[in-house]
Amino acid sequence: MNRRTFLRSIGLVGAVGTSGCAAQLNPVAETPTPELTPTPEPPATRAGTALTGMYPGGPNREDAIANLELYTEWLDRPPAVAVVFVDGLIPDGAKQGFVEGPLTDIWNAGHVPMITWQPFAQEKQQTSETVEREIAAGEHDDHLSSWATLLDAWARPYGERTRGRRFYFRPAHEMNGDWFPWSAVESSRIDSTVTPVQNGSRTTNATGGENPAAGTPEEYVEMWRRLYDAFGTTDLDATNIQWVWAVNADEVGGIRMERYYPGDEYTDWVGLDGFNFGGSQSYSSWRTPQELFDPILGRLRELTDKPVALTEFASSSFTGSEGDGEYRPARKADWIEAAYEYVAANDIKMTCWFNVDKAGADEADWAVFGSERGTEQASVSGTEYAAYAAYNRTVSGDDFLGALTDYPPLLTDAEFAGEF
Fold first, then answer.
1. Are 70 and 1 in contact (CB under 8 A)?
2. How far apart are CA 63 and CA 86, in angstroms?
3. Which residue stretches does the UniProt record annotate as biased composition, category Polar residues (predicted)?
4. Which run of H or E residues covers position 149?
5. Residues linked to residue 115 through DSSP beta bridges, in sequence order
6. Is 378 exposed, middle or buried (0-12, 13-18, 19+ CB in 10 A)?
């Protein structure tokens, strides 16, 4: 199962979209929302720093929260941002279960959630290839309205009494690839994830180019704006919600990502997803952060002045090329250090590590913590875990700090409230 098939199958931190998972994530009656405390006033913006976050994986919400707790204890402070996935065109009960379950869990654990809103139908593989056209035409307005109402109530449970909860909203990501139905390239025939070739990618089973039968970039923009306008009918503002438009570092299908941009009026951040597959796949080879991110990052900076986030990124430790090589964790540790140096040098304001260690086609050892292929062992509450230590520090329980805390300095939600 490849990375994006994995996301299609689980939907979010613990799945939404299948009947069994929807039941698991509908804990409204048994998990009441706790009382909120007033949010601290934001401090002055701190130049040269960035939010650090992660996707904690799963496969269910309990495992994901446990992973976040281990990160918090390991780093001696909570990651400011936690990425969560949810399918958009699901029954209202499943929506409520997500809001009252995983979303609230993440907030109560001390993290600002980044909601990756995927316009999938309840049966994901039955999602229309023209879902962006349908949403743009108003065919799913009931779903947009219910999401806006639910998230407004979640973010502002006591109205104006406090600043309330906050979240990043990342709808319909990686549209410049050919693996999601909201791309203007037909995705139903795509079996593999992006081919990580510098300056672009190719797949052997895709003709590429715009296909009106799969929607158009213009309809994607109309979909985004309709979703944005649905939230505009609520009392949510920039202190509660910030919109993240996220593209993939490897562009697949021949349609330039700029055509999908909804405009500065409709976005707060631009995101970039990218993975160094190393030699783990038959089509891949090792790439530095510069080789992976530079081409699209340069184009993003030409497109807009909005702050940039690495909304999903990770590296394998498998060196070599075309699937022939070996695991070299020290090489991955060097890559992590180089990546955070790259973040600092390029004024990237947020980083979210994709912390899922997986095997199989189009997968690799992405995890930076808890992986079986770490360079050292970190002790958390008496349990030993593998970890990638960029500076060869001696590991001694809570004293261990890896590259994630050093490039750039890790800030908690409260410390970075001014940059939310």
1. no
2. 16
3. 193-208
4. helix 141-155
5. 84, 169
6. buried
Distance between CA 301 and CA 108 in Å, rounded?
35
Query: Are 71 and 405 contacting, i.e. CB atoms less than 8 angstroms apart?
Result: no
Round to whole Å and give the CA distance between 222 and 216.
10
* DSSP letter, residue 122: S
Q: What is the pLDDT of residue 382?
A: 66
> Each residue of 355-391: pLDDT tens digit?
887 776 777 888 876 666 666 666 666 666 666 643 2
Whether 95 and 142 have beta carbons less than 8 Å apart is answered as no
| Radius of gyration in angstroms for the set of CA atoms belonging to the chain, rounded to a whole number | 20
Total domains, the chain: 1
Per residue in 261-300, pLDDT (tens digit) is 999 999 999 999 999 999 888 888 899 999 999 999 999 9
Domain with 332 in it: what CATH number?
Answer: 3.20.20.80
pLDDT-based confidence at 57, cuts 50/70/90?
Answer: confident
- CB neighbour burial string for 93-107, b if at least 16 within 10 angstroms, e if fewer: ebbbbbbbbbbbbbb
The region of weakest confidence among 18-32, 63-77, 108-122 is 18-32
pLDDT of residue 124: 87
Neighbours of 221 (CB within 10 A): 18
pLDDT digit string, tens, across residues 231-267? 999 999 888 899 999 999 999 888 999 999 999 999 9
Do the strands 376-380 and 383-387 form a parallel or antiparallel pair, or are they unpaired? antiparallel
Tell me which residue of 24, 51, 3 sits closest to 105, measured CA to CA.
Answer: 24
Q: Dihedrals φ, ψ of 48, to 5°?
A: 80, 10
Main-chain phi, psi angles of 259, to 5 degrees = -70, -20
State which residues form the domain around 300.
3-419
Phi/psi region, residue 399 (left: phi>0; alpha: psi -120 to 50; beta: rest), is alpha
Residue that has been written with the tokens 């743009």 in this structure:
136
Note the pTM of the prediction, 2 decimals: 0.80
User: What is the rounded CA–CA span in Å between residue 152 and residue 154?
Assistant: 5
* Lowest-confidence segment of 35-39, 62-66, 331-335 by average pLDDT: 35-39
**Strand extents, DSSP E, 143-240:** 167-171
- Decide if 180 contacts 187 (C-beta within 8 A): yes
Pure H helices in 198-243: 217-231
pLDDT mean over 194-213: 44
